[in-house]
Amino acid sequence: MTIATLASFIDTSVDTAQLDEDMLRRFLDRAREDPAWPEMDQLTIDICQPTLNQEGVVGFFFNKCPAITDLRECMKRAAVGTPIENRIKCPGIVHSTFLRFSRAGHDDQKFRERFAEVAKTWESVQISVDLVDVVRESSPYMHMVLPAKRHIVHSVPVSL
Do the bridges between strand 58-64 and strand 43-52 make them parallel or antiparallel, or are there none, so unpaired? Predict the structure, then answer.
């Protein structure tokens, strides 16, 4: 699940050299030290029913996790005065993308109907994590060889 994006692979105008690993570590540490960082032992996320976007090219799970809003605000404040101040982007929703097509299929209506049938069978799943990671994407949409540990720039514990 993405909490914030600092540089999109789509935006070729961004000089990613300015996003050096030391600066990213300091940024995440500063966000973690913000007094508004939620007090919790773990970040618990309810993964809800799968959904298709209006165009039918992106499938995602809406997630319930009230603490994400607070984490995003802490990150925005931590970015002030840094090279990422004007780059940090936070999605307007709490979600996890699980499929993406370049365009709608040849039988879009049939796909949507089948997707809706399967989505109705979904039962919410709860997961908990104890770290927030800064990850440097090497390929679009986190399509990287697993395990992706080598892409992690820095991690901070969720608990204070």
Answer: antiparallel
